[in-house]
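Worked example

This section walks through a single chain of length 394. The input is the sequence exactly as stored; nothing has been trimmed or padded.
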Amino acid sequence: MKRVVVGLSGGVDSSVAAYLLKQQGYEVIGMFMKNWHDDSVILDAECPWVEDSQDALLVAEKLGIPFQTIDLSEAYKERIVDYMFAEYEAGRTPNPDVLCNREIKFDIFLKAAMQLKADYVATGHYCQKGEAVVDGQSVFSLLAGADGNKDQSYFLCQLTQAQLAKALFPIGHLQKAEVREIARAEGLVTAEKKDSQGLCFVGKIRLPDFLQQQLKPKKGQIIEVMADAPIYQKKVLAGHEAVPHQLLSQPFTYQPSDGQVVGTHNGAHYFTIGQRKGLGVGGKVEPLFVIETDVVQNIIYVGMGENHPGLNRKGLFIPNDDLHWVRPDCALETGQKEDYLVRIRYRQPLQSATLYREPEGLYISFSDWQKGVTPGQFAAWYRQDELIGSGVIS
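Given that input, the structure is written out below as tokens.
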């Protein structure tokens, strides 16, 4: 009998994942990951980890499976929280959920499961796994979940073949409504529990409070750049002759002289491109959006209206060090290009694009303009419903 350790989060998805695996004849062990100690930045309306762990225990008892809690808070702080602080401080916007899956669930948690002599680990992700033989070797595919509204393959875009080999996604072929129906039929305490939101394993947090634990407030200027500003009339790349996909990937670099001061803020590192709330600047015909953050000069640049040219780009760049292929056999060689479907944030509809591999990294040129291309976030590319690779946007 194959042994599976299920990451029981205290939610309905992982609960049903454990139930289905037991029905399929696996020896199932439930394990709750405790990764957070500081409740001071969690919103009161959200369930803290204590309630989640109790629900996970109740599910394990109902299913008649062994249950244990593993404290990964030290590794979580080192690999996720410290990474978040460093990224925000550098003016980038991290995606902790992607890193959480790569560094915690499918690394430290996976290793803990292997110490229990498990054959697999399982989670309640809405995605699917495929397997094929390529050149005599087993190759695993990361596929979108059957429920298009819940597909979570994007959050797993950094997984390796070794991690996928040990992973099971028992609910990936189901719709969310079917998962809840199974939980109701089996009398699981999590059947009607709301989906968790916010930071992986932590819940919904007060981001400013969270960031201020380490990144101190610092007064700076908010500068509005007009849609007809000279910077948008012509885009010039200094230093080398740029081919179109290299040119399209370059973000605008603003100077204070490109606009006028319209307000102040408490720290450029608290803001992200595309952000609308929290600026505190009124009297505008349309809302202001953040179009750039300069953490060196502590300036936020904003533009009025969601169609402001500073919000839209046709391309992006991923350096070699931040490039990852879930399917290494599909990796582009230098000088190659290929058409893929790409998303730059969770739940964004897939966008048509061409990938160009150059000596310095990967360029992605989109067919349509993209709003809010944000450094630090992940771009993931698909062939139909299979996630082929991903990388951190520069």
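What to look for: The mean pLDDT is 91.
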